[in-house]
Design goal:
441 residues, alpha/beta, Rossmann fold, 4-stranded parallel sheet, 50% helix, disordered C terminus, binds iron/sulfur cluster, iron, iron-sulfur, hydro-lyase activity, metal ion binding
Length: 441
């Protein structure tokens, strides 16, 4: 089936909110600020840490510590096309090329391999939580050995149940206490409860604004593409406890609201199809990922990766439970529910899955999740081989062919459904107002 190239719609470009810079520019500045603050702290002789993306950073904020985020740093390095070189440098050091690309980039950088992509100060201490994945543990242990520095570790085991059991929260509360003691010894300061409470307040404000922004993908037509959210991931990972990040996301949500009212969108093409894009994007290949979608009028209106970093809580116990929920640490039932709720809220007619060679835990769960989508949502699901950081594992040709296949099936089903007067997309009416990121305690 031939596919016609989709032309841009006239006058669809959104405008910034009156009297403000565009939110995207504001948010870019916030990430730069986090890294600059870390460099300034290092120059003043203060301690600077490296943290995994879902470590309960609120604890470190109670000590005014500056931290950088190796996952974010690795993603930026990969997006700026220096990831492969650093991956290979890590392999030359003896690390296997089957290890996650983020870890390889970070280990090479920690060992002194330079990069011009984005630089961050070398760490004086490490904060690691295995709620992201267990590979994290070995990654951070190796960095601790390279620099001979303390590693503060929170163990959040994989959740086999949908609910977070009370005893798991008890286990985490004990670890929070111990981490505070370790931070007190590290900094020579006492834990400052007001600063901790303030950090929690800002983290919740940032998360609320981020989730609100993500939810605009549920509008039809959508005022954004899921790819816009990928561009803001650095903020939600590295700046959750910064007021400026909260303000940036509030501005972003306002822009989307304005776009809805003015019928504009960052997705400047007709929305022929709406899909769920599953997994971490291939950062070095964002353009090759986006182009075939754009050329076929396929807008991404559901992504799991972005809202997974927006989580809210009211008490410290709820905070502990919220940190138990990350894409690779929840059971299949929760994983399916997150995605299917989003599919129903946002309206999709197909899904595209990145079998990300770097991220074994994520890709490993996908065959069963895909099977459930086909059964529960009756949508076509197509996957491709990719990698978030290692360019050797992505083929643009294979990807184009897979997108083409998905478009052909969606075209056929769309024509059939329209002829019968049926909904093309997963049913908006069946949608309940679920905040799937909220801890279920
Ligand atoms: S990409 Fe996957 S394997 Fe790599 S750190 Fe993240 S969760 Fe772990």
């Amino acid at each position: 089936m031939a596919v016609t190239k989709i032309e841009k719609l006239p006058n669809k470009k959104p405008r910034p909110i009156e009297g403000h810079k565009p939110a995207a520019a504001v948010l870019r500045g916030v990430v730069d600020m986090v890294y600059n603050n870390a460099w300034e702290a290092k120059k003043r002789g203060e301690l600077v840490g490296w943290s995994s993306s879902k470590f309960p950073i609120e604890l470190a904020k109670a000590f005014d510590l500056n931290v950088c985020y190796p996952e974010n740093h690795a993603a930026t390095t990969a997006a700026k096309k220096d990831g492969l070189r650093l991956c290979q440098a890590a392999e030359d050091m003896g690390y296997d090329n089957d290890i996650c690309g983020y870890a390889r980039i970070s280990l090479a950088y920690a060992a002194g391999e330079p990069t011009d992509a984005r630089r961050m100060p070398q760490p004086d201490f490490l904060l690691c939580c295995n709620n992201i994945c267990n590979m994290m543990t070995k990654w951070y242990e190796n960095i601790a050995r390279i620099h001979n520095i303390p590693l503060i570790y929170i163990d959040i085991p994989f959740s086999n149940t949908v609910e977070v059991p009370e005893e798991k929260v008890d286990y985490l509360m004990g670890q929070f206490k111990y981490a505070i003691k370790q931070l007190e010894e590290l900094t020579g300061k006492k834990f400052q409860e007001e600063k901790f409470n303030e950090a929690c307040k800002i983290a919740n404000r940032t998360a609320a604004a981020w989730l609100k922004s993500c939810n605009y993908m549920g509008k039809e037509p959508s005022p954004l593409s899921g790819f816009d959210l990928f561009n803001h991931m650095a903020d939600i990972v590295a700046a959750r406890c910064e007021v400026k990040a909260a303000e940036g996301f509030e501005l972003l949500a306002e822009e989307f609201e304005q776009s809805v009212a003015e019928n504009t969108s960052t997705w400047e093409y007709p929305e022929e199809h709406r899909i769920l894009f599953e997994g971490i994007p291939c950062w070095p290949a964002l353009k090759p990922l986006f182009e075939p979608l754009k050329n076929n009028g396929v807008n991404v209106t559901a992504v799991v990766y972005a809202p997974a970093f927006g989580f809210r809580y009211e008490t410290v116990r709820e905070m502990a439970a919220a940190y138990c929920k990350a894409p690779c640490s929840v059971c299949i039932e929760t994983g399916v529910e997150w995605r299917e709720t989003m599919a129903k809220e946002n309206g999709i007619s197909g899904a595209l899955v990145n079998y990300n060679r770097s991220c074994k835990p994520w890709s490993g769960a996908m065959p069963e999740i895909e099977r459930r989508w086909k059964e529960d949502l009756d949508i076509p699901v197509i996957h491709f081989d990719g990698d978030q950081a290692d360019e050797r594992n992505f083929s643009a040709e294979q990807y184009n062919t897979r997108v083409q296949g998905l478009v052909e099936i969606m075209n056929e089903r769309k024509a059939e459904r329209e002829a019968k007067g049926e909904d093309v997309y997963t049913n908006f009416e069946n949608t309940k107002e679920t905040d799937w990121s909220k801890p279920t305690m």
